[in-house]
Structure formats: structure tokens, C-alpha cells
Design brief:
Elements lengths: L1 E3 L11 E4 L2 E4 L4 H13 L5 E2 L7 H4 L4 H15 L25 H7 L12 H20 L4 E4 L21 H11 L5 E5 L6 H7 L5 E8 L24 E6 L5 H18 L3 E6 L18 H10 L5 E5 L5 H17 L2
Parallel strand pairs: 1-4, 1-5, 5-10, 6-7, 6-9, 7-8, 9-10
Antiparallel strand pairs: 2-3
Helix pairs in contact: 1-10, 3-4, 5-6, 8-9, 9-10
Bound molecules: 6-amino-N-hydroxyhexanamide (6XA) and zinc ion (ZN).
């Protein structure tokens, strides 16, 4: 399987995130991508290519222009205030506060952020746009007739909504790739999110649409991040009613429960008649993940890949979460190798 990779991911290296009531070193680090790339090479998964530049147009097909312009200028405006440390919001535009977009960068940082764990740094814009190009280059390959591709996307994307960042995500790589597949003639595209955390951003982007089916298997938002989206009763709205499936599972759920939810999701994708599949591949479902609470073992990721291959669809994998850095390479490549073995 082809891997698309850009070294520009290294430019996103936040110093700290606010988690569990204290500032901790970021879990989303460049070493994650290094380990995945090393495993791709060590396991001889296939060629590794650099992305083609696609510019801002595909991003603007999914994200709000004001939000994009904010990300483009945030660091420069933040550093003009004399600040050389990561840009993190100090409050949120919460219920019954004015919804108007603030003028000042500090206010915009609060308006366009979902949490305090997604630091904007000097290299964020370059890293995030390169990550989109990685995903889009993978989509180009599917459009060109290839069966599958792995977009080694970092920073990840599935928490990024139309107009906000969060969960270490700035641009929604998977959603932008799905939109590109739609724009290049694929009539029905499914996005399956197997990350531990609900893909609130991807749901937000496609919630009112029937041409993109969104499905997510994740830790129950009653106890797990992102808390405020990802419930089973969220089924889409308007045109999109019936084209959104959430499978929230209790933290600590066993592997067989997880695979049962996967089989239910795969059944919906087959019923939808998808012409292509985008997988938000987070491996923080791993039993040893430091911030998540499912129990998949490294061998289970082979099974995941095999189950996905059974759909017989052109498939683009976009890397999302996974913070057990030692095993991340094997966990990710097991999915891809499991897929290949059944293709
Ligand atoms: N900082 C709070 C937890 C962010 C979760 C990030 C993730 O793995 N999303 O899939
Ligand atoms: Zn996650």
C-alpha cells in the first residue's frame, strides 16, 4: 500500500496542553509520525511519496473562510503581542455570550477553539496545510484508480469542525479528502471513524448531507472527550437525516463489543452503496493508550484491516490519534497489512 508523508508535520510541536486540570507536555508529538513511518518502512508496506500541493481551495470547500484566515494569521498576530509561547485560549464563547467574532487575536483564539489542548505555534499553519496535502494526495490516488492509500496525516483532523480547532486538530484531513472524492465524481462516500474519540468535527461538516455517510465508534461521550457530541441519537438532520451513525461504547468495553459495533457500521456502509471509503484511523483504541480506555491488542488491528477490506471499496486511511508511541507503528501498520492481505 502506498504511503503519503510530509516531513512538515515536525513543524507542529506544541509544548503543553491543559489536561486533567494541569498543563502537561503535549501527547500529540512528532515522534508519533516518526514511529509510524519507521514501521511502514520496516514492514515494507509499500512506496512512500511526498504530497502534491493543493492550495487553499479544497480546504475552503469544507472550512469557514474566517476560520481559515484566523489560522493563517494567528501566530504572527500572537507573537506581535510579544508572546513566544504556544497560543492557547483562556476562555470560550459559551452559552448566552455574544456570538460575534472578536476582532482581536486573543478573542478569536477563544472563538475558534474547542479546547485548551490544541496549541497554535509558529509552525502550525505549515504543518496543518501539509497534512491536508497528504490526505488530498491520497484521495488523488483513489481518483486515479488505486485501491487504497495511507495518508500519514499529522496533525490529525477529525475534531476540526467547519469553524473551530480542537483535540490536536486544525483542518479536517479526512473530511477534506472525502469532499475531494465527491468533487471528482464519486457520488457516495463513507467516512468511518475508528478513533477512540468521537469525530465531532467530521460529523459537524457532513451532518446535513446525504452524499457523505459518517459513522463513528468511540468512547461514550457521557464520560469521554469530546463530551458534547457523539451520542447514538445523532442521526443527521434535514437532507442528512439517516446518514450519521454514532456507536458510543462504555469506557473499558471489551474487544468483542468493539468489533460488534464495527460490523454494524460496515453493514450500514454496504447499505449506503458507498463508492469510496475514508477511514479516520486512530489507534488510541489500543489497550495501552495513555489517554483512552478501550482494550484492542496489537493483533486486533490486523482483524480491523481485514474487516475493512471485506467492503471491497477504494479506501483512504487518514491517521488520527494514538499516543502509545512505542507500539503505534505496529498498531497502524497492522491495520494496513491486514487490509492488504484481504484485498
Ligand atoms: N486533550 C483532550 C483529549 C484530546 C483527544 C485527542 C484525540 O485523540 N482525538 O481523537
Ligand atoms: Zn482519539
Amino acid at each position: 500500500m502506498l504511503t503519503i508523508y510530509s516531513d512538515s508535520h515536525r513543524l507542529q510541536h506544541g509544548r503543553s496542553e491543559l489536561i486533567d486540570g494541569t498543563l502537561k507536555p503535549c501527547f500529540e508529538t512528532p515522534s508519533r509520525a516518526d514511529m509510524v513511518l519507521a514501521a511502514v518502512r520496516q514492514r515494507d508496506l509499500g512506496d512512500v511519496v511526498h504530497p502534491r500541493r493543493h492550495g487553499l481551495e479544497p480546504i475552503l470547500r469544507v472550512h469557514d473562510e474566517g476560520y481559515v484566515r484566523f489560522l493563517e494569521t494567528a501566530w504572527q498576530r500572537w507573537s506581535e503581542m510579544g508572546r513566544d509561547y504556544d497560543a492557547l485560549p483562556k476562555m470560550w464563547q459559551i452559552r448566552r455570550l455574544r456570538e460575534a467574532v472578536p476582532e482581536h487575536v486573543e478573542g478569536q483564539l477563544c472563538y475558534y477553539s474547542m479546547d485548551c489542548g490544541t496549541p497554535i505555534t509558529a509552525g502550525t499553519w505549515q504543518a496543518a496545510t501539509a497534512s491536508v496535502d497528504v490526505a488530498l494526495t491520497g484521495a488523488d490516488r483513489l481518483i486515479g484508480g488505486e485501491r487504497a492509500a495511507f495518508a500519514l496525516t499529522r496533525p490529525p483532523g477529525h475534531h476540526a469542525a467547519r469553524d473551530y480547532c480542537g483535540g490536536y486538530c486544525f483542518f479536517n484531513n479526512a473530511a477534506i479528502a472525502a469532499q475531494a472524492l465527491r468533487d471528482h465524481g464519486m457520488h457516495r462516500v463513507a467516512v468511518l471513524d475508528v478513533d477512540y474519540h468521537h469525530g465531532n468535527g467530521t460529523q459537524d461538516i457532513f451532518y446535513h448531507r446525504s452524499d457523505v455517510l459518517f459513522l463513528s465508534i468511540h468512547g461514550d461521550p457521557r464520560t469521554e472527550y469530546p463530551f458534547f457530541l457523539g451520542f447514538a441519537d445523532e442521526k443527521g438532520d434535514g437532507e442528512g437525516l439517516g446518514y450519521n451513525f454514532n456507536f458510543p461504547l462504555a469506557a473499558g468495553s471489551c474487544v468483542s463489543t468493539w468489533f460488534f459495533a464495527l460490523d454494524c457500521a460496515l453493514e450500514q456502509i454496504a447499505r449506503f452503496g458507498a463508492e469510496a471509503l475514508v477511514v479516520s484511523l486512530g489507534v488510541d483504541t489500543f489497550e495501552g493508550d495513555p489517554i483512552s480506555r478501550f482494550q484492542l491488542g496489537t493483533p486486533d488491528f490486523v482483524t480491523l484491516g481485514a474487516r475493512l477490506a471485506a467492503l471491497k471499496l477504494p479506501t483512504l486511511f487518514c491517521l488520527e490519534g494514538g499516543y502509545a508511541v512505542g507500539p503505534i507503528g505496529d498498531n497502524v501498520v497492522n491495520v494496513l497489512a491486514g487490509f492488504e492481505a484481504r484485498s
